Amino acid sequence: MAHVTVRVPAVLAAGLGGRREVEVPYDADAGPPTVRRLLDVLAEQHPRFGRRVRDERGEVRRYVNVFVGPDNIRDLAGQDTAVPAGADLLVVQSVAGG
């Protein structure tokens, strides 16, 4: 069983039980997982995190950015972006203030 490391900033860590990094397992024989599948697994295990990252339609919220390695999924195939072996998934929530 392979895994993808998902990293989040402190503002999202509460939704993952206080962890800023989690490993999400996947079946390597089935090929690389998509961002959607990884977020589905996390939302199932951590519903609070799932609600903070995606809206009621399952779309990534506009103030949340998801990166596969250095690339924003909005510039790739969105949630259908494959996460290759060895790549990290970074989920970042925009923070406003002044």
UniProtKB/TrEMBL annotation:
It comes from the Bacteria. It comes from Zhihengliuella alba. This is MoaD/ThiS family protein. The lineage of its organism: Bacteria, Bacillati, Actinomycetota, Actinomycetes, Micrococcales.
